[in-house]
Amino acid sequence: MEPKRRVTLKDVAARAGVSTAVVSYVINKGPRPTSKEVTERVHRAVEELDYHPNHAARGLRARRTHAIAIATYDFRPSTSFFSHYLGVMLAAMTEALHSKGYYLLLLPFAIDSSPARLRQLLGEGRVDAIAMRFVTDPPSSDSVLQVIAEAGLPCVCLERPGAARFGFPSVTYDDREGGRLAMEHLLGRGHRRIAHIHGDMRYASAQARLSSYERAMTAAGLEIDHSLIVGSPWDMKAAHEATQRLLALDHPPSAIFAASDDLALGAVQAIEHRGLSVPGDIAVVGFDDIPISEQMIPSLSTVRLPLEDMGRRVADLLTAETASHDGPRDVLLPVELIVRETS
Amino acid sequence: MEPKRRVTLKDVAARAGVSTAVVSYVINKGPRPTSKEVTERVHRAVEELDYHPNHAARGLRARRTHAIAIATYDFRPSTSFFSHYLGVMLAAMTEALHSKGYYLLLLPFAIDSSPARLRQLLGEGRVDAIAMRFVTDPPSSDSVLQVIAEAGLPCVCLERPGAARFGFPSVTYDDREGGRLAMEHLLGRGHRRIAHIHGDMRYASAQARLSSYERAMTAAGLEIDHSLIVGSPWDMKAAHEATQRLLALDHPPSAIFAASDDLALGAVQAIEHRGLSVPGDIAVVGFDDIPISEQMIPSLSTVRLPLEDMGRRVADLLTAETASHDGPRDVLLPVELIVRETS
DNA sequence: TATTCATCTCTAATCGATTAGAATTAGCAT
DNA sequence: ATGCTAATTCTAATCGATTAGAGATGAATA
Fold first, then answer.
1. For residues B56 and A248, what is the distance between their CA atoms, to the nearest angstrom?
2. Taking CB atoms and an 8 Å limit, are B108 and A95 in contact across chains?
């Protein structure tokens, strides 16, 4: 393949019989008006030459790269970086960004990675803005956000609000409300002895869901029985074993609220292995709504996260020219209870 | 945040008391030698000023962006783009690229998306190379590859070899061998009546795994009973129902080879719901080795894909200066049979 | 000491766009 | 027609690096 000579602005200008400045104006729809006739000629030339503005030249002069970076600070980067959770969100975000002419750059961050890499990325001026996902609450994230703030780069935080003091907005789904909905549902079905399987408590989500459980129980006038709160590290097998412990109790629960669908899956399996039925003997509600939840039999009742919405909102916030009219906002997106067969 | 003035080459040069050319030489370790003393002075200046070369300027002049794009041509882009499969691979790839100073750009392609987007990306000169994943065999992918070839960009194909005529290497895992291993394993345990649950036959993997099944049966001198080959669209629920049909046969199988772990999951559930045990009554082997496979009880025997290896290999191929000494190569990575409790 | 050669450094052109500021043209009222 | 303003268009500087070609330096050789 002989690498055909690139088509440049100059070529287009020559073909359209105008100066390069005008071509630039036409392409960028401004900042100065162009006559209808010239505009058309330029567009035709662009079309005919299959011209695409060079990204580097553009970025150099205009200081805009039309690229957005996303980094996740997670404890389990390699296995979970692209969980269903992040995956769906990323897909939506990629698509939303693309439709605005932006590209998404993936950064490989673990929760303990040094800010050096980040500093390099920012120093290079490679991206216009950055999205950060933290699985824990501030202030563990502060040093990272500090780096971004110093670079003067727009940033949106995923899931964990509280970056407002850096001037950054956030997009979060409503973990608390999700837990409330799940519990309300189970309580509404008459369950009184409800267990909770929580996830890795280093995660803010695990904390939030557990505290929703406790709040709901208390609000319903029920005492919190700590033998009904079992834990595991977001791991289906651990959930299976935890459930076995629940089933072995003198007063086993009649319902289980699991902090994730993976955990719920383990619970359902354990219950069925014990010869009991779901939801006949024990009802189960999960959290996340991963694809399996709908497909398994019995299908899993769960709390659906607004993943695609989140992706789109983040994309919108990051590409908004009109950055925050009235200060950064913490966007809280609603979750949805999906009642299926396990409850 | 007042956006601090950028530190440029000039600043570094001034501080080190040399010309910008020398700084460039030092930073890029070539193409001309620099004296030890000057080299050190420059490094010190870089350090002190926290200098990072501007990506756009660099890209403009040197025509290298140090960015790699990846696109997936799949039938189900939104749900599966970031399946476990792609996720782990991407994580490995991102990391490998990063360690070489490259960044990964995500492209949001569905299998029927037009080449226009791609042409734009390439026209912009935004990336140095591109990785493409196709879930079907050529020639459906040819028009896309044609675009890349015309742009003269290095490209690596994931999973589906046969792009050699465009001069592109490929990285694939051994689907056929995986099927063979799974079947050999089941046959070795004395199973003779083995069923196969295949996935969406539009996928080359589904085809390859099915044909491995047929080949193994034939090689073992067994006749292929078409009532034992049931299909579903990579969907756990469909697998569940397909398995119910298998169990209802006059001569139900004693083992099932499922074309994916998701399908295997559905099969296991169906078997257990029927009151039978796995592997006591029926053995099951899956394909992929998703995280759940190890965690479920009983844990699932399956074929593990070399996902991280693939990611790294692709990264290597795409960043290799020495592009193909002796023509493009189709790299075929081995898979591994993981025997667990279901078989 | 003069000459040659290798090594290192500097000057300045260049990549391809954007965008001030100047120049031109068009539109309109006088 | 003429002057004035508004609408367009052109010229050329600029972004921040890389890199050919020229120049300077020092060591080795004659």
1. 64
2. yes
